[in-house]
Amino acid sequence: AEVKSRLPVLDVVGETVQLKKAGTTYKGLCPFHGEKTPSFIVTPGRESWHCFGCGEGGDIFSFVMRRDGVAFPEALRLLAARAGVEIDERTTREDARRKRLHEVVESAISFYHAVLTKSPTGERALAYLHDRGFSDETIEWANLGWAPPDWDALGRTLEKRRRMTMAEPVEVGLATPRKGGNGAYDRF
Ligand code: ZN
Fold first, then answer.
1. Residue 21: which H helix or E strand, with range?
2. pLDDT tens-digit map of 115-150
C-alpha cells in the first residue's frame, strides 16, 4: 500500500505507454496486444489500468508483472526500490513460515477430529462424549478430536497426505523428535 501510494499509476504506466488525456482517464495503445486504435485506459482516480481489447488490467504491480514477465515479489521489489520504500525481507519470510505452521496446526485439528468422528478408533470416545451430553453440533463447532493409540499417527498422516515434514509437527509442539533417529513421536 505504501509503494502504491507513492507511485501514481499514470507515472508507472506512462513510462511504457504514450498516454493521452481523455476526460478523467488517459488513453493509449495497449502494450500487451497489437492494436492501432487505443483501447488501453488508465484511470488515475482508481489507480488502475484496463485494456478493453485484450481484457488485461489491474494496478501498478500487475502492470509491471505483465510488462516484465515477473511474479509479484519481483514487481514489488522493483517498484519499492523506485518509491524508496524499504522492504524487510525477513517479514515476508517470517509471514510465510507462520502461515505454514498455522497450516500444520489446522491439519492436525482436522486429523484428530476425523479420527474422533469418522474412524472406528474414535467410536468409544465419541460414544463417551454423547453420553456426557455433547451433541454432534457441539463436537463439530469445537472441533473436538481424539488421538489414536499410536506413536506417530499424526506425523505420518501429515507427511503422507499433506506433504508436511516430520519436523513441522515438532515445530508447533505437537510432536517430539525421536532421540538420535529419524521421525518424531506424537505428543497426544
Ligand atoms: Zn490489450
1. strand 20-22
2. 999 999 999 999 999 999 999 999 999 999 999 998
Residue 58: how many CA atoms within 13 Å on its side-chain side? 13
User: Which residues 6+ apart lie within 8 Å of 84 measured at CB?
Assistant: 6
| pTM recorded for the entire structure | 0.52
- Ligand 1 center to residue 9 CA distance, Å? 17
Ligand 1 centroid to Cα of residue 52, in Å, is 7
Mutual angle of helices 153-161 and 89-118, in 10-degree steps: 110
Separation of CA 62 and ligand 1 centre (Å):
13
Cα 49 to averaged position of ligand 1 atoms, centre (Å): 10
